[in-house]
Each structure stands twice: as C-alpha cells, then as structure tokens.
C-alpha cells in the first residue's frame, strides 16, 4: 500500500502529495472520515433525481422489445463481403413495400450473418423476400454454393415472450419474499425494509438505463436483471453486517450515536465494496468487448449491458441509499431515537457548561490548560510506574 501511495503522489508537489496520501490512507483504513450518513439528505436527493430520470425515460421512450416478446419473423443469411445493413433495408423495402423492424450484422469474418427482424410474414411475402435477397447478395451455404436455401425464416410468437415475463415476475416475487424473511430473521425489520427498497431502486434504475440506451429487451435481459439482484443484496448485507457489529450495545453507551457508528461501518466496508465492484465489472467489460464488438453476438450484448449497469447501481444503493435509510428508520422511533436525543443533549449540555465558566474563576485559563493537564496526567513513554500503580502491576 505504501508503494501505491508513492506511485500516485510522485508527480505532485509536497502539499498535494500529503493530501493524496491522507485521502488514500483514510479510504483504505476506514477511519470514518468520509461522511455518508451525515449527508444522507443529499444522497436521498441524488437518489430521487436518478429515479425521476429513469421513470421519465420509461414513460416517454418506453422499451424496445425484441422479437421474442412482440412476435414476428426473423430472417437470417450469411453476409457476403461489403454487405451493409442499409443495402439490406433497401432490398427489403423494395420487395415488400414496407420497412423492416431492424437489420443488424452479427459476427465477423466468414462467420458473419445478417439478421432481419420484421413483422410476421405470410408464405407469399417470405418467398418474394427470399428471391429478392438471393438476387441481390447471392448468399452461399456451408459448402460454398450460392443458393436461396441459405436464407432462413423463423416465425416467433409473442406468447413465448409473455410466458417468460410471467415466470420472471413470479421468480422475482418469490425472491423478494425470501429475502425479506431472511434479513428480518438474520438482522432486523428496518434492515429488511432498506434492503428491499434498495433492490427496487436497482431494478428501476437499471430498467431506466436500458430504456435510455434503447437496447432490445430480450429473454437474456430478463435473466440478467434477476442475476444482478443477487449482487446488490450481497453488497447490502455486507454493510448491514458491519453496522450490526458496530452498533451492538450502543444503547448502553453515551459517547456516540447509532448514526455515527453506522457511518463508521460504511467507511470500513467502502474499500471492500469498491474492490468487489471493480472485480465484478472487469469480466463484464471483457464480455462486452470480446463477445459484442469482436464477435458481434447480440444476445451477449443484452446480458453484458444489464449486468454492467446493475453492478454499478447495486454498489451505489448499498452504500448511499440502503444504509442511510436504515439509520433514518431507526431514528424515527424506538430506543435508538431516544438514545440519539440523549447523546446529543448530553453533548449540548457539556458544550454550554464549558462556555458558562467565568473567566475570573479561571474559565479561559482552565479550558486552555486542560490539554496540558491531560498531558501531565498521561504516563510518559518508557517511564516506570510508581506508587499505587506500581503495586497494582506487581
């Protein structure tokens, strides 16, 4: 870690280097210096803005559903050299008098194929389109012979997509119920509420990003959405576990509040959350680069995007939304609320008492010399204990 700090700060001036070292040190050691819980109103506002943008995108732009959900005909044939999607769209429009829903090239090199998604075609339309595509591009079969049979047609019913959606919703409902029961038993009710709220936030924001980007919603998208919920829950439970550890017995102490101990827990798990997120994002990025850009596999593109967004959103919600929400719920009612008021009142009384000490009675001098007295009472390094302390140690 020292070597990393030195590398980062070599190009900075001494003041900047010291500040950078201090920041990295606080980040890695988790000393509680980063105020998250104390600024929860700001993070609530930020979370609200993110949710609002997602809702507006879903309401205005909507989703681009794939052929598995809307039904239609999928046309596929090997892509010849220098065949562009615009040329395929032109041939399709001239043959049928209508535009296709989408045209894309999948794969690269000799394995590249052109995929056309259109509305449901009858037998006559399919024959006309097949003849027009063969005349324009002369696709070849696996043996290298040009033939119209290299152009395949697949009819897809929207019923299958509806069944997938229904099963996904049932799986989601069962998952949320089981998660709520587990967190309530393992931790407590307020943490269960915050954890479920974070999961809904993750689902909504991920769907909003998908709407903004305009990618097709496919069965792979649904599978990816269910997958990221596990990551989000894992990240939240890690922070909750540390909060529970730090706040155990807090009601019997008067020095720190529940919120302060929860903020310390967030700091102590912050670096772990960052590392976990980075490690999870790297394979997904590799999947997008290799499978999507190099190989052109459209299904993997859908799966990779939703996992990438879900991982990032889940990391944010566990730190800046779920844990602050737990503290807010705790401080609204119950013993934690009473304890917080008692600690804050005790601090306010101590501060006002120190300010009311008259100067004639040595108020300013006493306050000023207090650190000196404390230092005088503290044993010096290497000094041998004497008197009663020595007897106790013997």
Automatic annotation (TrEMBL):
Subcellular location: Cell membrane
Coiled-coil residues: none
Keyword S-adenosyl-L-methionine: no
Membrane topology recorded in Swiss-Prot or TrEMBL: Multi-pass membrane protein
Cellular component aspect of the GO annotation: plasma membrane
GO MF annotations in UniProt: protein-transporting ATPase activity
Domain Protein export membrane protein SecD/SecF C-terminal residues, every copy: 147-331
Residue intervals passing through the bilayer: 42-60, 168-185, 192-213, 219-240, 278-298, 304-327
Function comment: Part of the Sec protein translocase complex. Interacts with the SecYEG preprotein conducting channel. SecDF uses the proton motive force (PMF) to complete protein translocation after the ATP-dependent function of SecA.
An annotated GO BP: intracellular protein transmembrane transport
Entry protein name: Protein-export membrane protein SecF
Subunit composition and interactions: Forms a complex with SecD. Part of the essential Sec protein translocation apparatus which comprises SecA, SecYEG and auxiliary proteins SecDF. Other proteins may also be involved.
InterPro entries from the UniProt entry: SecD/SecF_arch_bac, SecD/SecF_bac, SecD/SecF_CS, SecD_SecF_C, SecD_SecF_C_bact, SecF_bac
């Amino acid at each position: 870690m020292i070597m990393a700090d030195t590398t980062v700060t070599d190009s900075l001036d001494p003041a900047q280097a010291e500040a950078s070292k201090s920041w990295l040190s606080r980040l890695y050691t988790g000393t509680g210096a980063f105020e998250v819980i104390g600024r929860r109103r700001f993070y609530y506002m930020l979370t609200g803005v993110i949710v609002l943008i997602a809702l507006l995108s879903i309401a205005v732009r909507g989703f681009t559903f794939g052929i598995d959900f809307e039904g239609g005909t999928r046309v596929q044939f090997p892509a010849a050299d220098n065949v562009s999607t615009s040329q395929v769209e032109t041939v399709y429009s001239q043959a049928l008098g209508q535009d296709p829903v989408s045209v894309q090239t999948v794969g690269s090199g000799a394995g590249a194929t052109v995929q056309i998604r259109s509305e449901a075609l009858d037998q006559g339309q399919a024959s006309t389109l097949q003849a027009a595509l063969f005349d324009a591009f002369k696709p070849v079969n696996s043996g290298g012979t040009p033939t119209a049979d290299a152009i395949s047609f697949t009819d897809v019913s929207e019923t299958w997509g509806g069944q997938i959606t229904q099963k996904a919703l049932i799986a989601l409902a069962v998952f949320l119920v089981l998660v709520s029961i587990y967190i309530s038993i393992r931790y407590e009710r307020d943490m269960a509420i915050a954890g479920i709220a974070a999961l809904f936030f993750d689902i909504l924001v991920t769907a909003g990003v998908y709407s903004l980007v305009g990618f097709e919603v496919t069965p792979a998208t649904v599978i990816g959405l269910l997958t990221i919920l596990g990551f989000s829950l894992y990240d939240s439970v890690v922070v909750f576990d540390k909060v529970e550890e730090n706040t155990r017995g807090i009601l019997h102490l008067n020095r720190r509040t529940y919120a302060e101990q929860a903020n310390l827990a967030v700091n102590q798990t912050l670096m772990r959350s960052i590392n976990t997120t980075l490690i999870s994002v790297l394979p997904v990025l590799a999947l997008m680069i290799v499978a999507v850009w190099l190989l052109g596999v459209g299904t993997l593109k859908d799966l990779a995007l939703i996992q990438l967004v879900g991982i990032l959103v889940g990391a944010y919600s566990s730190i800046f939304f779920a844990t602050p929400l737990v503290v807010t719920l705790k401080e609204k009612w119950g013993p934690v609320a009473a304890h917080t008021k008692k600690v804050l009142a005790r601090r306010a009384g101590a501060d006002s008492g120190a300010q009311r000490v008259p100067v004639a009675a040595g108020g300013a001098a006493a306050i000023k010399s207090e650190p000196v007295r404390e230092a005088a009472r503290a044993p010096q390094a290497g000094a041998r204990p004497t008197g009663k302390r020595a007897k106790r140690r013997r």
